[in-house]
Design a protein that fits this description.
Blueprint lengths: L4 E3 L2 E3 L3 E3 L8 H10 L3 E8 H19 L18 H15 L4 E6 L3 H13 L4 E5 L11 H18 L4 E5 L6 H10 L4 E4 L7 E3 L4 E3 L10 H11 L6 E5 L5 H10 L3 E4 L1 H6 L3 H15 L5 H4 L19 H6 L10
Parallel strand pairs: 3-4, 3-12, 4-5, 5-6, 6-7, 7-8, 8-11, 11-12
Antiparallel strand pairs: 1-2, 9-10
Helix pairs in contact: 4-5, 7-8, 8-10
The structure holds flavin mononucleotide.
Flavin mononucleotide binds next to strand 4 and helix 9.
Amino acid sequence: MELSTDYLGLKLKNPIVASSSPLTWELDSVLALQDSGAAAIIMPSMFEEQIKQEQEQMERFIHQQSLGHSEVESYHPGLMDYEEYLDKYTRRLHLLKTELDIPVIASLNGITDGGWVEYANELQQAGADALELNVYYIASNPEESSSSVEQRYIDVLTAVLKQTQIPVCIKLSSQFSSIIPLVKKLQQNGASGVSLFNRFFQPDIDLDTLNVVPSLKLSDSSSALLRIRWVAMLRQHIAMSLVITGGMHNAQDVLKGLLAGADVTCMCSALLENGPEHISQTLQQMIQWMEEKEYRSVEQLKGSLSYAKAINPSAFERANYLEILDSYSYAAGVMV
Ligand SMILES: Cc1cc2nc3c(=O)[nH]c(=O)nc-3n(C[C@H](O)[C@H](O)[C@H](O)COP(=O)(O)O)c2cc1C
């Protein structure tokens, strides 16, 4: 079975990529992901916020220590003795590049225009095969229009592309009023792909303490359907890579994503739940299904049920809305 696919201009041996999580940081788990068949890995994001915080702490520390304690200054470690976060990240990237045969994608979460550009450049220098921009932005400013929110994504991309030559993928949120034009614009401005969709972690309310608390829940396959719909709708308009991230838990999810038109599917929650070996089981089950259905390659499968090719494309839109509502039946014992 020919499973190879294109991803941001890179040739991958199959369409399953391990997306950013703690599993794509430690060398042991990354090697286990590769052994299990991961076609590439995306490292956890490098957060500009963390670099800034570290720099500020260091400046404060050095400043405080030098006030009136000059005699002990010589005992303090110099600035360069600290393993800064940026240094740690780029060294880990370099290590993974040396130890792995599969592509290593770095991920960046910036907060300032200068930061996006500077750190993207650092990641390229450290050997990243491509870059995923994790634009984690909650539009909370009541004065900011939706078009200026969208422009922010284009501006970040444009700035990063001016300083880097490696392929760049943008990880998008699903919360845009008009995703197709936005993705088209990202393509026109030089993106090599989009990853659909980032999961914004939802804060929760603790009813005992009356505090707002962060909550991180892993996904299940139900998250896949939103991605599948939008990939199917986008495929005919977009030539660059379409990547699904979110809800890819088993062979069925991956196959549906590919049929809708994804080039690549990323797994995170399923790997955190089942371990790296889950990729090899998923690949085996995919191959079995493809053989039964007489597909010869992933290339043949890709997009064959996209909006442009499906027999009933209106199902991706609103057409069967009433039908679905009508088809609902009460659970046993309710409203007899
Ligand atoms: C513990 C954990 C850590 C994550 N860290 C990152 C990260 O650093 N950068 C990023 O872009 N996404 C991160 N993600 C998001 C995942 O890479 C993935 O896009 C998302 O969880 C959707 O995929 P899933 O449904 O397979 O979990 C993280 C997710 C989890 C659960």
